[in-house]
Amino acid sequence: MVRGQEPFDGLLMFKAILLGQWHSLSDAALEQALCVRIDFMQFCGLSLSDAIPDETTLCRFRNRLITNDRLDDLLASINEQLQSHGLMIKGATGAVIDATLIESAARPKKTITLEVDAEEGKIVQFEDGSQPGINCIEEQSADPDATWL
C-alpha cells in the first residue's frame, strides 16, 4: 500500500468519508482501516496496489465539503436513497476476524459411553428419540493449537 497526497478521485474520497461516518472513525483510524480492511478498499474502489489517502487528505476533503455547505446535503441524499430501499445505517459495531480453519494431524481423544438395554441388547431410547446415559469425555489433543469445532 502506498500512502500519499496524490490527487484522489472525489467519489473515492466521499466513499471513504462515508465509511468514517458510519464506523465513527477518526481520520487516522480511517486511513489505517483503508490500508488493512479489504472490505473498505473494495467499497472505495481501491486495489491492493493503489495509493491510500492519508489522514490529512481525508480531513481536507471533508473540510472542503463542509466549507462549501455540501456535506450535510450529500449525507441527507445518501440517507434518502438508502431509506427508499428500506435500509438504514445505524452505528456500525463489530469486528472482522480471521476464522481460518487449519487441518491438524492430531485430534482430541474422545470416549463415548452408551447405555444399552441388557434384555434387548439395543441402545436405550426415550419416546422423543433422546438417549439417556450417554457420556462423552473429551481429552485435549496432543497438539495444543488443535481444537475441534
Element-level helix/strand string: EHHHEHHEE
Total count of strands:
4
Number of helices: 5
Major sheet: arrangement of strands = 1-2
The rounded distance between the terminal residues' Cα atoms is: 35 Å
- Average per-residue pLDDT, rounded, comes to 78
Q: Uncertain regions: pLDDT < 50 for 5+ in a row?
A: none
Shape: elongated
Q: Work out the strand percent.
A: 5-15%
Estimate the helix proportion, in percent.
25-40%
Radius of gyration: 27 Å
Please outline the major beta sheet: 2 strands, parallel
Features:
single chain; 149 residues; alpha+beta; two-stranded parallel ribbon; two-stranded antiparallel ribbon; 38% helix; 11% strand
Please, could you describe this protein's structure?
The chain is an alpha+beta fold and 149 residues long. The chain is built from five helices and four strands; from the N terminus they run βαααβααββ.
